[in-house]
Specification:
With 359 residues, the protein is of the alpha/beta class. The protein has 2 domains: 146 residues, Rossmann fold, CATH 3.40.50.1970; 183 residues, Up-down Bundle (Dehydroquinate synthase-like, alpha domain). The protein has 15 helices and 8 strands.
Length: 359
């Protein structure tokens, strides 16, 4: 008699699997852009490349990257004025028939590169010109739509070549925004743990620990991050890479995206073009840390030390707009449970915003 049909007698099997994709080569430091051709050669990426860059980032580093690569590769250029479905489609057409992609920029160019890389199943190299958010290393890409920003699956970079000399010369506001994005990992993890307890959402302790450690490093080194500081650029870029790796381990943006990101996405709808993504997340993180009963004053102090906004006024919006964004947050990605999905009332939201100005 066979026991094959009796489940209780079947030998239990572990069938969980996950394919982790992370950068293979990561070079961060002074003058590292000069190593770009060697990195591409080491990875055996092929013989032809498409460089995707914006107008400013082409001047900052894209032109030099082209000159370096043209000594060994056939190179084409795609100018990214914005990020939209149409731009992504045009970039895909430009990349067809070429072997690999190089994204040069602080945000949109790299997001376009990783989406095109994903859609065409080819490799791409990330060359950040600013440390403005953790997209320089992650497997997620943010694309603005009429209904707000959407997060898409994409390829993580096959390699990252981050020249801190170039990054330190970018406007400090961009680096401060990147810091705020990383520091907000604190509350993203608290929201993830909350969802795990209440909703039974699966959590990756490895990804959570890495994300939390990355945020703590920036809080501890906030005094080293100031305009023109190449050491600050080095610290922040390493943190952005670590945060991106945490997302790759988790297989989602959960380690770096909680209620503070939902607040930011709500602001993108209500008051588009006012604050930078990381800046908005930083302000949201102060408020959600308060709701979690954590040390919100430490978060605020770190952001102030770095030069990131800590109030709606600093974001260029009024307090009522911030209140509306807090209340709208529960409608942004409702499948992602956070502290802002716990039934926040208008009166409480108003008090949260006022708290931001407290001494």
């Amino acid at each position: 008699m066979s026991a094959d049909g009796i489940n209780v007698l079947k030998k239990p099997q572990f069938d969980k699997s996950r394919w982790l994709q992370m950068p293979r080569d990561v070079i961060i430091g002074h003058g590292t852009i000069e190593q770009l051709p060697k990195v591409c050669e080491d990875l055996h990426l092929g013989k032809s490349a498409l460089i995707i860059a914006g107008e400013n980032t082409m001047k900052a580093a894209g032109g030099h990257a082209r000159d370096l690569l043209e000594e060994r590769y056939d190179v084409e250029i795609f100018g990214a004025k914005n990020i939209s479905p149409e731009t992504i489609e045009n970039a895909e057409n430009a990349a067809k028939g070429l072997d690999f992609i190089v994204g040069v920029g602080g945000g949109k160019a790299i997001d376009i590169a990783k989406i095109v890389s994903y859609n065409l199943d080819c490799q791409f190299v990330s060359v950040p010109t600013a440390a403005s958010h953790d997209g320089i290393a992650s497997s997620r890409a943010s694309v603005p739509t009429e209904g707000g920003s959407v997060s898409l699956d994409a390829h993580p970079p096959h390699a990252i070549v981050a020249d801190t000399e170039i990054i330190a010369k970018a406007p400090h506001r961009l680096m401060a925004s990147g810091c705020a994005d990383i520091i907000s990992n604190h509350t993203a993890i608290l929201d993830w743990e909350l969802s795990h307890r209440i909703k039974g959402e699966e959590i990756s302790e490895y990804a959570a620990a890495l994300s939390k450690m990355t945020a703590e490093i920036l809080v501890q080194n906030a005094h080293l991050i100031y305009p023109g500081s190449e050491e600050g650029a080095w610290i922040v870029t390493k943190a952005l890479v670590s945060s991106g790796v945490a997302m790759s381990i988790a297989g989602s943006s959960r380690p770096a995206s909680g209620g503070e990101h939902k607040f930011s996405h709500a602001l993108d709808i209500i008051a588009p073009g006012k604050g930078l993504h990381g800046e908005q997340c930083g302000v949201g993180s102060i408020m959600t840390m308060y709701l979690h009963g954590g040390n919100w004053r430490e978060i605020r102090k770190s952001l102030k030390d770095i030069g990131a906004p800590t109030t709606p006024k600093g974001l260029g919006i009024d307090d009522d707009t911030a209140v509306k964004a807090l209340l709208m947050a529960k409608n942004i990605r409702p499948e992602r449970f956070t502290i802002l999905d716990m039934g926040l009332e208008k009166e409480c939201a108003e008090k949260l915003v006022k708290m931001l100005y407290a001494e």
